[in-house]
Amino acid sequence: MPVFTAVIVAAAYLCLVVTIDNTNLGTSNGLWKSPAVFAWGHEHTGPLDSGGILYAPVYGVLTRLIPDSLLKYGTPAPDLTFRKMAVLNSLFGGLATGLVCFLGLRFTYSPVSAGIVSLMHGGAGFVLLNSINSEDIVPAYAFFLGATVCFFEYLHRGGIRLYAASAFLLALATLFHWTVMAPALAAIGAVYSVLLTLRRAFFWAGTAWLFLFLVFLQGLVLLALPWRHIPVWAVLLPGKADSAGWVGFFGEKGWNLLVGMGNYFAGGNNMGDYKAALANAAILHLMLVSWTVLAVALTVSTVTLMRRPATSGLPLLAVFGIALFLAGEAGAVYSQPQDPQMQIEPMFAVIPGMILLMRRDSGLVGNLWRPGLAGVLALVGVANGSWNVHLMRAGSGQDSKALWAIAEMDRLFPRDTTVIVWHGFERWTTWQYVLLWRNDSEGFLRNTVHLTMAFTMNRGITGRQAAAITTAQIDADLARGQRVVAAALWTQPAEEFAGAFTTVTTEADARTYLALLRDHYRTGERWNTPIGPFVELLPAEVRTGEGRP
Fold first, then answer.
1. Which of 286, 292, 459, 543 has its CA 20 to 30 A from that of 526?
2. For the whole model, what pTM was predicted?
3. Nearest to 489 by CA among 447, 456, 535, 458
4. What pLDDT is stored for residue 307 in this prediction?
5. Residue 448, Cβ neighbours under 10 Å: how many?
6. pLDDT digit string (tens) for 271-322?
7. Where is 418: in which H helix or E strand?
8. At what angle do helices 81-108 and 111-122 cross, to 10 degrees?
9. Torsion of CA 290, 293, 294, 298, to 10 degrees
10. Where are the domains of the chain?
């Protein structure tokens, strides 16, 4: 049944990848990494991401195995790596739901219950989103679930192979996406803590498991990249773990955390402006669904942990989900709490809660109510998954449109003579990099200005300091005779724009930053393009003989 579930879900995801034709749903992070994946697939070398050392090399090989002829739909593209990455994600996404089905069968002993839980997982907003776009989290997530299944199977059946497999798969997950490591270790550590109340021997079992995990980490790196000399501590704490303005704590991130959790199950939106999310009635209603499902799952897990003996095995699944959620959300709020890739693992806590709710002898639901509960959860799973697909279909065809629009942009704003000012998180920015500046990141950064970069590259910077950095860059571009055009800030009210910076700085600093930038320049010519409006930026004060006529 788990294999059948994995195949059916993967096939559904593959169908959505082709018919929606939008591999950048929610985020263009995967598209941004596609040149590195292409390089590893065709040149057998390329840049490595310190937070996902094996991702680009392995995906490079796998994408090379997929014939281009299978993906020539929509507008032709010079390179189809981004579509191949989405195809691979569909397969890993199907595998993830198959593993959830296995876990459901193990704890409920009911194919119907396992099927309902699988349905809820496969249609959950962020699981669906990340399985049909080109983001890089899904393979690591699937390996994490594989480690989870092997870990609980080891506790149920014993055996050194399952014991080692759980450590190996988590090491593999870590090397694909470093962020999955800490929450998973916290969850497994919490389970061993409960087991210690039964036998002290579990302390040595847990310690040996952790040592084996570290051995697998170092061994896999040495085997895959022997010439890179990457020590295990560089895997455990990669450079991007303290990457400038992307990380840190400030008040607005708490609201973004709520928005991120609120989009996991229903909606699947990646919203960097929490005020816009909370002010939108349709989005708020969907977030209420997600919050309700999470609250039920965590309540069920907490009650199970308090009421059931550890020998039954159910508290082990409960404490796993709770610890995973707490550790994962702590990491998310330190990084990017609204991001689907940061929320997909900690919000997996919903699934253990649903499994425990469906367990026949859990004592949480009376036998007379159980058929009705199964029917309600099945209805919720179908309705939620269908609505999420409907919402994602609203972005159909965006890849094909982007391929045409970027060519038109290159005609309007030639790369050699134009500098474009972006917010920094627009999908068009990534398309421009991939299509027009492929393998030339220096040229791309020299001829674009990302308004968020002053914050993301300088942790703890104030709005006034950030404005000084950005205006110096734009002034230098103007001084060397470049035409500077803006696709953000000067094309919309600053008040609406400030909220979009609260993932990298406080709203107060964002307002200061934007006000100083607007005061420093005036606008000239205006263009309406397929991407949206652009305006030319000129110095606020033009001296005689300076500026454009």
1. 543
2. 0.92
3. 535
4. 87
5. 21
6. 988 999 999 999 999 999 999 999 999 999 999 999 888 778 899 999 999 9
7. strand 418-422
8. 150
9. 170
10. 251-364, 398-539
